[in-house]
């Protein structure tokens, strides 16, 4: 049922805008994708000083056996978010100074999904995901759809005030210059604390009877929950497992660690998965100090031929859309690495799936299976850890 080809639809009206539909993920389940938001009225928004903190998020859930679901096509990102990134990513002043036009790249991308099957959602555990500082949560949705398709509810949590562009449910667009957050350690630590609180608020709220009653398509069982994230979101994931007893385990994808994981220990299963050249010997990442505080089962991995943003959808997406090809590969390498896009997705999803299987199994699955998957999936170096 799953064509490996990309469907190209020329719209009847207008005629000039080609839509690229990213095929459904490869796992046993089709998945649904639902945007929502919660409002924390107990906190002022630390970035806008609004009287409450709005936290948008997306719930990606299994929705029946792959190939048998009721298919629906949804945009990869809201238009305003897509066109912002199309301008910013290649730009010499804001982004990477790439001599390639990204115009229409993200706007044209659509996802092949399933209509939600809420009655089945509570059979699967919950995984929270926190994006990199600056990055829209949508840049991880292909990765998270592929993970969800293995049998998880994956929730990507946006961070207003810490993301370059945010299109709210009502269409309001918030543009944020995040450079001030990177300026010093104290500001970064405060940003991680905001994330830990936001993630905790989302987790607490989605399982409340009032949320379930007002969101018939989001019926989650949060008795089993774990967390991972990219970059500052990876730091927030480790901070979350240190701070909150509800998380059963956590993984940091290529994030410099700041805050509580440097001063507090945890015995929960944990992972650090870095890009090429990022490991415990690179002092700025603080992974050596973090490592000593991870007292439970742990593993340190490296994604080969990768760079920091290889842990987003971009390697797969740019290759799939044809923007990355033989003649543009070198130009795009600083952004996505030289790893094959399909392999990058396969490696990260394969490793995360085996990690979460272990975390949620309550001892039935052994940690060594994570190490074995890392060795088997391709382009992953096993650097350190419990069963290495
Ligand atoms: C935030 O808003 C409150 C209430 O309007 C006000 O008292 C406070 O001074 C504001 N803080 C900042 C930093 O603007
Ligand atoms: C597809 O939609 C139909 C009509 O709403 C419904 O009866 C059926 O159960 C759905 N199938 C799946 C797999 O969700
Ligand atoms: C987004 O842009 C596409 C094409 O550029 C257009 O077809 C679509 O209607 C737009 N969607 C919204 C919600 O504006
Ligand atoms: C961007 O790249 C071009 C061509 O490589 C170069 O001439 C230009 O100086 C660069 N601009 C910036 C701001 O780095
Ligand atoms: C890309 O879009 C921007 C803004 O809409 C426009 O200024 C620019 O000329 C476009 N570039 C190309 C190569 O079409
Ligand atoms: C996390 O725990 C540390 C240490 O107990 C505490 O200082 C910090 O405020 C907590 N952060 C959040 C967001 O709960
Ligand atoms: C939630 O899942 C747990 C086990 O993971 C189970 O014991 C519990 O009955 C479930 N709750 C509901 C409401 O389905
Ligand atoms: C660890 O990182 C250092 C510094 O980036 C690098 O020189 C070294 O090759 C890396 N080691 C491995 C095993 O990747
Ligand atoms: C490679 O991608 C670039 C940028 O989208 C495009 O201009 C070029 O035609 C593509 N080349 C091939 C061989 O597909
Ligand atoms: C694993 O990390 C520990 C602590 O940093 C270090 O002492 C040990 O040599 C590392 N093992 C390998 C195989 O690199």
Automatic annotation (TrEMBL):
Name assigned to this protein: 1-alkyl-2-acetylglycerophosphocholine esterase
GO BP term, example: amino acid metabolic process
Pfam families: PAF-AH_p_II
Top-tier EC class: hydrolase
GO-annotated molecular function: 1-alkyl-2-acetylglycerophosphocholine esterase activity
UniProt cross-references to InterPro entries, sorted A to Z: AB_hydrolase_fold (IPR029058), Asparaginase/glutaminase_AS1 (IPR020827)
EC number(s) recorded for this UniProt protein: 3.1.1.47
Positions annotated as active site in the UniProt record: 16
């Amino acid at each position: 049922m799953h064509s490996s080809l990309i469907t190209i639809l020329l719209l009847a009206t207008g005629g000039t805008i080609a839509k690229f539909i990213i095929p459904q993920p490869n796992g046993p389940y089709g998945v649904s994708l639902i945007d929502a938001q919660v409002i924390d009225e107990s906190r002022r928004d630390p970035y806008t000083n609004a009287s409450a903190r709005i936290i948008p998020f997306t719930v990606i859930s299994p929705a029946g056996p792959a190939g048998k679901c009721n298919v629906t096509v949804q945009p990869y990102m809201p238009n305003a978010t897509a066109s912002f990134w199309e301008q910013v990513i290649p730009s010499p002043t804001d982004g990477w100074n790439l001599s390639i036009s990204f115009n229409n790249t993200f706007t044209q991308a659509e996802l092949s999904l399933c209509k939600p099957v809420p009655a089945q959602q509570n059979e699967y555990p919950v995984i929270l995901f926190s994006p990199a500082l600056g990055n829209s949560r949508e840049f991880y949705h292909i990765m998270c759809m592929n993970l969800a398709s293995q049998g998880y509810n994956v929730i990507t949590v946006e961070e207003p005030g810490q993301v370059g562009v945010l299109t709210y449910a009502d269409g309001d667009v918030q543009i944020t210059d995040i450079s001030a957050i990177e300026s010093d350690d104290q500001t970064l630590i405060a940003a991680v604390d905001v994330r830990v609180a936001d993630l905790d608020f989302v987790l607490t709220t989605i399982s409340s009877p009032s949320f379930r009653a007002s969101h018939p398509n989001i019926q989650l069982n949060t008795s089993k929950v774990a967390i991972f994230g990219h970059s500052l979101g990876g730091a927030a994931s480790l901070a979350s497992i240190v701070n909150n007893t509800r998380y059963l385990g956590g993984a940091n994808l290529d994030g410099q660690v700041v805050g509580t994981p440097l001063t507090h220990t945890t015995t929960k299963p944990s992972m650090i998965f870095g890009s090429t050249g990022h490991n415990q010997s690179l002092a700025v990442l603080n992974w050596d100090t973090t490592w000593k505080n991870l007292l439970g089962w742990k593993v340190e991995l490296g994604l080969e031929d990768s760079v920091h943003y290889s842990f987003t959808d971009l390697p797969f997406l740019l290759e799939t859309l044809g923007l990355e090809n033989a003649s543009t590969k070198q130009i795009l390498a600083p952004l996505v690495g030289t790893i094959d896009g399909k392999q990058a997705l396969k490696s990260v999803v394969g490793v995360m799936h085996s990690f979460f299987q272990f975390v949620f199994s309550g001892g039935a699955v052994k940690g060594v299976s994570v190490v074995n998957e890392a060795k088997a999936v391709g382009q992953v170096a096993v650097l350190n850890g419990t069963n290495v």
